[in-house]
Amino acid sequence: xxxxxxMLLGISALMVGPALAQNQPNPGxxxxxSLLQAADKAIGASSVKSWSISGxxxxxxxxxxxxxxxxxxxxxxxxxxxxxxxxKSSKWxxxxxxxNNPLRGGGAGFPIQGEQSFNEGAAxxxxxxVNAQGQATSILPRDAGDRQPSKxxxxxxxxxxxxxxxxxAG
Length: 170
Fold this sequence. Notes:
6 strands; elongated; alpha+beta; six-stranded antiparallel sheet
């Protein structure tokens, strides 16, 4: 009986030891946390309610590849993304042109004639595209969720060299 009690006490001590060690604060983590909190307070990052980016570049269209060369892409004459975090809404506005990009294949709006303006939006679980005639066309709710902005980042935001997402026919 003594041996069993001793074994139980020994095993318990072996199990409690690592658990107690995990509760000790890491000095490096504590320093990093205080540094990040000070930076947040200085720039007010935690109080950001909305943000916007704009730029130019190009937009690629992945799909069937050619034996050599780059994917089809068009130039972005202008690009603006705006996110409103409290309402979980966002808006993309961009204008694409053919530019000096080689004409390859057809379909998907290639080659681009003149300037094509695109407007896309999302609010909650609703998403829509606005066509050239100004008519809104809803998209599937599962795709609208991809357009929702989040506090840390927009999971599907498109950079100036980003990818095409449910672009409306225009």
